[in-house]
Each structure stands twice: as C-alpha cells, then as structure tokens.
Amino acid sequence: MNRWPRWGRAVLMAAAMVLVPMAAAAEQACAPDRVTLRGDWGTATFRVEIADDAAERAQGLMYRDQMDRGAGMLFVYPRPQVAIAFWMRNTRIPLDIIFADKTGVVQQIAREAVPFDETPLPGGSGIQYVLEINGGLAERFGIGPGTEIRHPAIGEDAAWAC
Q1: What is the distance between the alpha carbons of residues 62 and 49, in angstroms, rounded to a whole number?
Q2: Looking at CB atoms within 10 Å, which of 34, 54, 60, 150 has the fewest?
Q3: pLDDT range class, residue 29, cuts 50, 70, 90
Q4: CA 49 to CA 123: how far, in whole Å?
Q5: What's the half-sphere exposure (Cβ side, CA atoms, 13 Å) at 93?
Q6: Quick check: 153 and 74 in contact, CB under 8 A?
Q7: What's the predicted TM-score (pTM) here?
Q8: Residue spans of beta strands (DSSP E) within 17-136
Q9: What tens digit of pLDDT does each residue of 100-128 get?
Q10: Cβ neighbours of residue 45 under 8 Å, at least 6 residues apart?
Q11: What CA–CA distance (Å, rounded) separates 21 from 13?
C-alpha cells in the first residue's frame, strides 16, 4: 500500500520536474569548458579553452584569425602573481583582457587590446586568473571591476563558488 496520498505524489513529481533541470543547469554552469560572469548588469557565459601551464599561457590566442563571439580563453596560474601584464604579440584579433584575483573577482580590464601591439597591458598584482574574450564584449555586457567569475578552477576562495 502506498503511504503517499495522490496529491502528495503530484507535489513530489512537480518538485522533481523543477529541481532536476535546475540542478542540471547549475552543473552545466560549472563545466570546465565554461566561464560565467555576474555583476549588477546580469550574467554572461563563455565557452573557454584553458591555459594552465607555461606553454599554453605563452601561446594564448596567438595566430588565430577569429574567435566565436561566445568563446574565450581562461589563463589559470597556480597562485596569485606579484605583477602580471599581457601583450598582443602575434595576436590577430582585438581582445578584452580581464584580470581577476584569487577569488575570481575582476580587478582590471584591458579593453580592445590592439592586434600585434607589444605594449605591456598590466593587470596589477594579486592576479591569478585572466580571461580573454573578443574586444568590445566587456563594455557591451557591462563587465568591470567587481564582476565575479565562476569556474571550477577557482578554488575554495571563490567569491562565486561552483
């Protein structure tokens, strides 16, 4: 004999139909190939490649002719950097370079970095994560200092944890 009244089973089924997709969406938001940003402007998600060793960080997005609008590259350093700067050597597409601290909070943005320009673009000190996206998107979305980045690589100190 079933212990649940008919209306109880209906409520349970309705809750499951709502919670399962919500859990799947939350899990998808924290996938290794996705970065989500949030601020008072809303949220934005980018499909990313990860550069988490010296060779990958040195290569970055050089020699590419284009990048999909919803794509980017997340540079992951093992610890916060004393000082960090990027440049656009051999980079053919304009980029917004977003510098975040160990908690994933954006500290600085180099907007519309000019292709092939070798002028250092400083991110400041204490930077552990750098996100490169197509130039102009940071302004279009409203991404600025204080924006939070969510990704599994941002560990237990994350301002917006997975």
Answers
A1: 13
A2: 54
A3: low
A4: 20
A5: 22
A6: yes
A7: 0.83
A8: 34-39, 42-51, 71-81, 84-86, 95-101, 106-113, 121-124, 127-134
A9: 999 999 999 999 999 999 999 999 999 99
A10: 29, 34, 35, 36, 37, 70
A11: 13
